[in-house]
Structures are given as structure tokens and as C-alpha cells.
Amino acid sequence: MDDGSGRSADRAARLPAARTALAAALPRRQPQAACRGDTGGHALAAPLHIRVLRAVDQATGCEDLLQKRGQLFVHETADGPSKGAYGLGLRREHGVKVDILDADEIRQLEPAWRRSFKSAVYLPEQGQCPNPGRLVARLAEHAARQGTLIIRAKVIGFDMGANGPSALRLVGGGRMPVETVALCAGAWSGDLARKLGDRIPLESERGYHIMVRGPKRTCASRRSPTTASSLPRR
Fold first, then answer.
1. Count of beta carbons in the 10 Å neighbourhood of residue 186
2. Pairing of strands 226-228, 71-75
């Protein structure tokens, strides 16, 4: 709980909600339930992912922001991938291409990586966006050109009608009539969902990443975003 930042007390206060969410999720972590859930998710996500990328490419010229470079998960032990065999099996069952690489194959794919990595999982069909903020801005610009009205306001609640939300309540006392509401507020979605009568076990968390400075030629040689299972001890 204590990460050295002094925020452990704040996190402890969230334990009751986290315990409730975990208890509700545990039955779904059984293998049979996980398979059912993953099958549905892959069936929906795969064709939608392809359609969205193609539409974005054609309509907004975002080819530079949608890159298919694969993803590499490296391990410092030869048996690293076997520790995630269940998850890798689910990926393969649902049509995800998974390659297991040894030390030589890692070097062939990414010559810049050090030799202490003995094995890797490579997902060649994975895609990335190098600048999500710029992509969202281009999507917004495209939507505006198509007639979408973009209003910047803070929603604090809803007026409810016979068939659901009838208006948004805004800061300052304003109201905006609506017919349909799509809740896409990220970390704030849980609070807004409660005001609609739904309890979503959503908890926000800080993200972490490491920026590595190195020769330009070395960075350029890395074709695939890489995740290491452990860091070297110095």
C-alpha cells in the first residue's frame, strides 16, 4: 500500500470498495468464465478495431498516428513465457497471433536489446498510437467538419425522465436537453454512473513509465514497443 509517496492512507480508505469489486470479479476468473468473457470481447473488438482504424485512416489522414509495429514482452529467463501459458493460450484460441522467441530471435528482431534477455513473447499484429492526444484532436476536428457540435462544459448530474436521462446538469446551473447519453468520462465515469443509478467498480490509478535516453540510431532500431518482465539489479 505504501509506495513512498505518502498516499497510503488515501488508498486504505478505498479498500472497502476495492474488496467489493474483487469479490464480484472472482467468479469470473474461473477458466470457463474467463473463456466465455474473452470470446465475447474478441468477437466484438477485433472487427470493430479494424473498421475504426480504416475509417480513421481514410477520413482524417492519421496514418502517421496509427502504427502496426507489434509488441514484445522480454524475460530474463528461458522459461519466462511458460509462466503466462494460460493467458497466451486464450489469445491463440481467439485468433491472436503469438510468437515465442529465444535469445537469438530477440536479437534478430531488436538488435539493441542486451543479451541478458533469454526469451520473449512477440505479438506481431499489435498496433500503437505514438501521440494519443493528437489523434483525439484530429478525430474531434473531423467530427466538427461533419456537423458535430462540441461544447466544453462540466456535467455534475442528470435530470431523469420516463425513459432515462432527459437533460444534463451543468456547473453554474445550466441544463442541456438530451435524448441519449454515452458515458465516456474516463476516471470520472464511476461518479457520473452512480448519479444514473449504476454502481461501476471503477478505480483510477496513476500510470508509470520510464524514459530512456540513448543514441538516436539505437532508438530507431527498436521496431516494437517492449515490456521487460524484470529490471537488472545493480
1. 9
2. parallel
| CB atoms inside a 10 Å sphere around CB 162 | 5
Residues of the chain with pLDDT under 50: 1-9, 37-45, 47, 217-221, 231-234
Residue labelled with grid coordinates 514497443: 225
The number of residues in the chain equals: 234
Q: To which residue does cell 455534475 refer?
A: 156
Helix 85-93 / helix 31-60 crossing angle, nearest 10 deg: 60
Q: For residues 123 and 96, is the Cβ–Cβ distance under 8 A?
A: yes
What is the distance of C-alpha 184 from the center of its chain? Answer: 14
CA distances to 47, 53, 62, 122 from 50, in Å:
5, 5, 14, 20
Q: How far apart are CA 109 and CA 224, in angstroms?
A: 9
Is 23 in a helix, a strand, or coil?
A: helix
What backbone torsions phi and psi does residue 226 show, to the nearest 5 degrees? -125, 140
DSSP H or E segment with residue 161: strand 155-161
- Tens of pLDDT, residues 18-33: 666 666 666 555 555 5
Predicted TM-score (pTM) of this structure: 0.61
CA angle 51, 97, 40 (to 5 degrees): 55
For residue 84, what is the DSSP state? Answer: G
Give CA–CA dist 176/55, Å, rounded. Answer: 30
The conformation of residue 77, written as its DSSP 8-state character, comes to S
Residue 96 to residue 211: CA distance in whole angstroms: 29
Q: For residues 105 and 78, what is the distance between their CA atoms, to the nearest angstrom?
A: 12
